[in-house]
């Protein structure tokens, strides 16, 4: 009797004894939150991606919202977001009261391009959006240089949603490459540290920037908009005693901010995971390269996502595009067939402009590139703990499904 093969989810975390020990040590420490490990993790993360500053928060959604708050987005403002993304990219702007203009995407890659961004701007000629949030879908970067050039001309800031792309490199013009998160061609980059992403802190997020003012604003917003720094107090009559010393209990709320603080426990896990990030990235690249080779001959029924020229991406998701009509099987049926063979799959994503909340707000829009991508997308298993045999099983099952 053969033993059943383990179920392969489309993605999952990679936790070892070192991670467990790091978390246990943090739990025995003096600070469970707002302690020194948060700053240590931020410094290490900023150094890894090559940015001057990093602000850690308790989710990728918080990381995006902090970026929008740092730019001062508010009611009356507009931002451009590609429709193929997770909800949080658009919602971050809505939390600030800003309105979202959905851009279409390239049907073959699911990514926003300079052309789809230009088309979105032309569709709403009365608006002057203040920011664009390109998404490095699956870990493949958008053409950052082209989008930044257009954003510059249109007076928009660029917030990269890099939640899928930690550890990758993108072309940055003049034959150079920049690390994702270095903000070489953007104001801000946002990451998620959810377990399914490239590294994890349980829940968590990071926003990186090279702009000290944006960095300080994000620190303020993360913690209720309050400061304990006497040098920043503005209400002198209640902050200082007659001798000019700051009152020892005093703090000042200068903006309206949520509590997006991350714990020292999470950051201890983050520091431990960060040390293994290069090996996670390396393993993801090897598995993706294997899929690239082993699935290439299934075209045109199953096609692969084209990468941005000159990039060296670190994929979070491995997506294949399947012509379900041609293989004579619906996506739901295909997912059930694969599941019965121990292979987990998922669909990333229903275009956000089709979500009932956004249809209510903006009406029914037509974004054919987003619809075409969504119709065919299927995410197959990709995570560092997968073995070659696991990946080969996925390839065999896809060959059987498609041929
Ligand atoms: C995961 C993800 C987010 C949100 O991150 P959370 O940590 O789940 O809040 C935002 N954008 C994209 C593209 C994501 O994949």
Automatic annotation (TrEMBL):
Keywords: Aminotransferase, Pyridoxal phosphate, Transferase. CDD domains: AHBA_syn. It holds the Pfam family DegT_DnrJ_EryC1. Its EC number is 2.6.1.92. The lineage of its organism: Bacteria, Pseudomonadati, Pseudomonadota, Alphaproteobacteria, Rhodospirillales. It is an enzyme of class 2 (transferase). Belongs to the DegT/DnrJ/EryC1 family. This is UDP-4-amino-4, 6-dideoxy-N-acetyl-beta-L-altrosamine transaminase. SUPFAM superfamilies: PLP-dependent transferases (SSF53383).
